[in-house]
Write a structure and sequence with these properties.
Keywords: Lyase, Thiamine pyrophosphate
Low-confidence stretches: 1-9
Helix content: 25-40%
EC number: 4.1.2.-
Number of strands: 22
Family: Belongs to the XFP family.
Number of helices: 26
Cofactor: thiamine diphosphate
Organism: Streptomyces thinghirensis
Length: about 800
């Protein structure tokens, strides 16, 4: 079905063809104008250097292809009355998407000062990549966008996330051939094995092969059509090819390809929804081959540009200083015949808008790209239903994530009809003790099943694929289109999506400043199978550094919680699932953990974010504490309480305060983070001049960085993970990193004035215990009985 090798298929009338071509030329004209012009938008006078921006920024190469796709999506949306969304993978195509939004009117509705006339066109041009204006990518500021695209690789997973549980939605996804070389994109082709044709919408990938990246050819564009077909069919798609450089032929072929693809999608959905077809369908994919920089300058300074890598960004770079470049730019702009496209006032002529849909059907106005407009409150049940009983601290143990799993199962059940909650994770739901959700929803799966398989479900809303990138992309697309979710992951391997979460935080930060963007449900991470209980998997599975990564990001958008037991995990999870426009990182263990707080106490403690556990310390209020034992995280909390108990036994006259931190941002100054403490609060909690021995879940220097401005920072001593790990016993992990209870008692003795001599014998006992531990585990393979069988004895 190639336009350059086959007669154009029937379908378009000459009038429809003329309208499509007019719209496409108008979009191309507006794209070029945004890159170059700051005045004279309609070329009502000869082009002069002062009409051109002093700094030329933007990307032309992909824009004509994106304009073609947008033009033809308009036609089928209007003709078929579709609810549609488009994910623009080539983020460098910002000029194209802005141009089309302006043409259809959604841009002016969003930004009334950018009117659809000559003056508005001038502002549209000048603001692009200009100080105080808009970015060059398909950014959050762009109406109709859910995908920034500045970092490549995530468009297709975002598109599938948008389609899940939106059965009436068609999500087109333009994939650039440079983006197609990334690992995340390559894996996301497998998303079609998880798309339910009954309850989900459809994704129409459009692989745009224009041949080049910034400076090199692209791999897929150099494959023969036959070899590329084999690849795409191997991914489970049915390819439809559109190839050419003659506009009329390409328009006709593209229209036929769009109609063919949408007919196939409709047939697949009808077979599944009405006839009960259960086999995994082969969904269509359009392969669009057009020249890079199509319709732009063929040559510049004697070098080929169109259909080469030189068309990637700004083909004519010296327009202000080189008269020949200026003449070429004017010739290029006039080649689109703007007088045919815009009236004397600068408004698009009726022929340009003939195939543009109306109202919310327009791609720039679809509510599916402004998900907060569609968002409903999540039906969260009362936490008391799941709370573990705590008559006294440390008298029982539970697996915190297993307790949370019961709550998530009920949320999944409560959303069974409305289908707006999903749990995603890389093959770890059961490993992370969340398998209770399977009673409410199985695991999404469209491939064949075998008798040994468990919990697979063609209509399931638990998403598991061994690709953290794909999980993240699915969930981001799901949230951005108005739904809720949770990403459960091993702590060490969530780093795989470091860069993706960067982009999502940036998106949230920008959208908070856009009043027309309604708040969306937060991106919630549950990080478990964490560093201190990866003793069986070893060093490769031990890395708590995602918290360091996140805490660097925009304070208004990131939150980090380290609940120390099951009830605090329930409280934190409830808060995170109710929140909007945040990235919430919750770090919690899946192994048996002591229950410290009742549900009511947990709610109060989590709301406070950090507080004194007076039942754990020995201060009586008659004097200041001699030392503060602080902790953040479940294992650090246990070690601090064990240390406090040892001090109570061996140094009974010492006044000890125990402080637990759930919300790590509480350590920051109030001026640096919305959750931060004032100096007055901080000094009241930690004191200004007493030693603070802080056992922290992750890398200890993070705590120092958060607290470095505090008055008492010189007295702060932090123990945490020091990148010492192996396959060993649980307690040996904390000993190896000097965060064990005996080491903490030694730190107290070393840092409280006067104790070094007075408590020398106690310190020696602690050191001896560490040596006994070393010998014991090497002989017996398990921890010392006094450690393995330890429990909180309170004041006894």
């Amino acid at each position: 079905m190639s336009a350059d090798t086959q007669q154009a298929p029937p379908g378009l009338t000459d009038e429809e063809l003329a309208g499509l071509d007019a719209h496409w030329r108008a979009a191309n004209y507006l794209s070029v104008g945004q890159i170059y012009l700051m005045a004279n938008p309609l070329l009502t006078e000869p082009l002069r250097p002062e009409h051109v921006k002093p700094r030329l920024l933007g990307h032309w190469g992909t824009s004509p292809g994106l304009n073609l796709v947008h033009t033809h999506l308009n036609r089928v949306i209007k003709a078929r009355n579709l609810d549609a969304l488009c994910v623009w993978g080539p983020g460098h195509g910002g000029p194209a998407v802005l141009a089309n939004s302006w043409l259809e009117g959604s841009y002016t509705e969003t930004y009334p000062d950018i009117t659809r006339d000559a003056s508005g066109m001038g502002r549209l041009f000048k603001q692009f990549s200009f100080p105080g204006g808009v970015p060059s990518h398909v950014a959050p500021e762009t109406p109709g966008s859910i995908h920034e695209g500045g970092e490549l690789g995530y468009s297709l997973s975002h598109a599938y996330g948008a389609a899940f549980d939106h059965p009436g939605l068609v999500v087109a996804c333009v994939i650039g051939d440079g983006e197609a070389e990334t690992g995340p994109l390559a894996t996301s082709w497998h998303s079609n094995k998880f798309l339910d044709p009954v309850n989900d919408g459809a994704v129409l990938p459009i692989l745009h092969l224009n041949g080049y990246k910034i400076a090199n050819p692209t791999v897929l564009a150099r494959l023969s059509e036959a070899e590329l077909d084999e690849l795409l069919r191997g991914y489970g798609h049915d390819p439809i090819h559109v190839t050419g450089d003659e506009p009329a032929a390409v328009h006709r072929t593209m229209a036929h390809a769009m109609d063919t693809a949408l007919d196939r999608i409709a047939a697949i959905q009808r077979a599944a929804r009405e006839d009960g077809a259960g086999d995994r369908p082969r969904w269509p994919v359009i392969v669009l081959r057009t020249p890079k920089g199509w319709t732009g300058p063929a040559e510049v300074d004697g070098l080929p540009v169109e259909n080469t890598w030189r068309a990637h960004q700004v083909p004519l770079s010296a327009v202000r200083t080189d008269p020949e470049h200026l003449a070429q730019l004017e010739q290029w702009l006039r080649s689109y015949r703007p007088e045919e496209l815009f009236d004397d006032a600068g408004a698009p002529r009726p022929a340009v808008l003939a195939t543009v849909p109306r109202g919310a059907r327009r791609l720039g106005a679809t509510p599916f790209a402004n998900g907060g407009l569609l968002l409903r409150e999540l039906p969260l049940p009362p936490l008391e239903k799941y709370a573990v009983p705590v008559d006294e601290p440390g008298a029982s143990t539970h697996e915190p994530t297993r307790v949370l799993g019961d709550l998530l199962a009920d949320v999944m059940a409560a959303t069974a009809d409305r289908r707006d909650f999903r749990l995603v994770g890389p093959d770890e739901t059961a490993s992370n003790r969340l398998q209770a959700v399977y009673a409410a929803s199985g695991k999404a799966w469209q491939e064949r099943t075998l008798p040994v398989d468990e919990d697979l479900d063609r209509h399931g809303r638990v998403m598991e694929i061994l690709s953290e990138h794909t999980c993240q992309g699915w969930l981001e697309g799901y949230l951005l289109t108005g739904r809720h979710g949770l990403f459960s992951c091993y702590e060490a391997f969530v780093h795989i999506v470091d860069s993706m979460v960067n982009q999502h935080v940036k998106w949230l930060r920008v959208t908070r400043r856009l009043p027309w963007r309604a708040p969306i449900a937060s991106l919630n991470y549950l990080l478990t199978s964490h560093v201190w209980r990866q003793d069986h998997n070893g060093f490769s599975h031990q890395d708590p550094g995602f918290v360091d990564h996140i805490i660097n990001k925009s304070p208004e958008a990131v939150r980090v919680y380290l609940p120390p037991d099951a009830n605090t995990l329930l409280s934190v999870a409830d808060h995170a699932l109710r929140s909007r426009d945040y990235v919430n990182v919750v770090v919690a263990g899946k192994q048996p953990c002591f229950d410290w707080l009742s549900m009511e106490q947990a709610k109060v403690h989590c709301a406070r974010g950090a507080g004194i556990w007076d039942w754990a310390g020995t201060e009586d209020g008659s004097r200041d504490p001699d030392v503060v034992l602080a902790c953040a995280g479940d294992v650090p909390t246990q070690e601090v309480l064990a240390a406090a108990q040892l001090i109570r036994r061996h140094l009974p006259d010492l006044a000890v305060r125990v402080v637990n931190v759930v919300d790590i941002a509480r350590l920051l100054p109030s001026g640096e983070h919305p959750h931060g403490m004032s100096d007055f609060e901080y000094d009241g909690l930690f004191t200004a001049d007493k030693p603070v021995i802080f056992a922290y879940h992750g890398y200890p220097w993070l705590i120092h960085r958060l607290a470095y401005r505090r008055t008492g920072h010189a007295h702060l001593h932090v123990r945490g993970y020091k990148e010492i790990g192996t396959t060993t016993t649980p307690f040996d992990m904390v000993v190896g990193n000097d965060m064990d209870r005996y080491r903490l008692v030694m730190d107290v003795i070393d840092r409280v004035p006067g104790l070094a001599v007075r408590a020398a014998a106690v310190r020696q006992r602690m050191e001896d215990a560490r040596l006994r531990h070393h010998d014991w585990i090497r002989e017996h393979g398990v921890d010392l009985p006094e450690v393995a069988d330890w429990s909180w004895a309170g004041s006894r």
